[in-house]
Amino acid sequence: MLNFEFAENPTEALRATFRRHASGVAVITTTNEAGAPVGFTATSITSLGATPPLVMFSVARGASSFAAIAQATHVAVHTLGVKNVNLAKRMSEDHTKRFEPADWASGPEGLPIFDCATSVLICKIRQILNVEANAVVIADVVDGSIGEMDEALLYYQRAYQTANPLPEWPSL
Fold first, then answer.
1. pLDDT tens-digit map of 24-75
2. Do the beta carbons of residue 147 and residue 154 sit within 8 Å?
3. In terms of DSSP bridges, do strands 105-106 and 134-146 run parallel, antiparallel, or are they unpaired?
4. E strands along the chain, which residues?
5. Which of 105, 116, 140, 172 has its CA 20 to 30 A from that of 132?
6. 142-158 pLDDT tens trace
7. β-pairing, 119-131 with 74-79?
């Protein structure tokens, strides 16, 4: 017998499920057609494979950053640690203030780079798949750099969290 009560509403089931699924936090940046920096906080980033090195992330097509992503050839994917929680919050709020203060610099491909991130990948967009009101972006990793080590920043239960170390598990 199952211990689950299945929801009648699939949308609510999806929301409740992903509130219970911790996700790593990243910031995606690019530039718009005028060369201005554009970016957003993402928890949908994942490795698609290592041979070739690919990443994928999703973005709402109605998001303020989507037009720039749709026309971009490259993006920078920044992974964040606990010390970057304010950056994560700022990049998810008012899009007109995301690059204030000027704590970033222009990097490879002219991409806005936050050097406080735990790592940054420079990626060439391979494909954008439009799915309903969202888009899945698949990109080739063309370069990368590792920053300062930090405790993982997670998004869980609609809030930024950190992972606590697991206790020692007995050997089987």
1. 999 999 999 999 999 999 999 999 999 999 999 999 999 999 999 999 999 9
2. no
3. unpaired
4. 23-24, 26-31, 37-42, 46-50, 53-60, 74-79, 105-106, 112-113, 119-131, 134-146, 153-156, 159-162
5. 140
6. 999 999 999 999 999 88
7. antiparallel
Looking at residue 12, what is its pLDDT?
A: 86
Q: What order of strands is seen across the sheet that includes strand 37-42?
A: 37-42, 26-31, 74-79, 119-131, 134-146, 53-60, 46-50
What region, left, alpha or beta, does residue 87 occupy, with left being phi > 0 and alpha being psi -120 to 50 degrees? alpha
The torsion angles phi and psi of 69, rounded to 5 degrees, stand at: -65, -40
Q: What residues form DSSP beta bridges with 27?
A: 41, 78
- Which tokens hold the place of 105? 């610099």
Is cis: bond before 101, omega within 30 of 0? yes
Q: How far apart are CA 47 and CA 90, in angstroms?
A: 24
Q: Above 80 in pLDDT, residue 164?
A: no
pTM of the prediction? Answer: 0.90
Query: Both tokens of residue 84?
Result: 């970057």
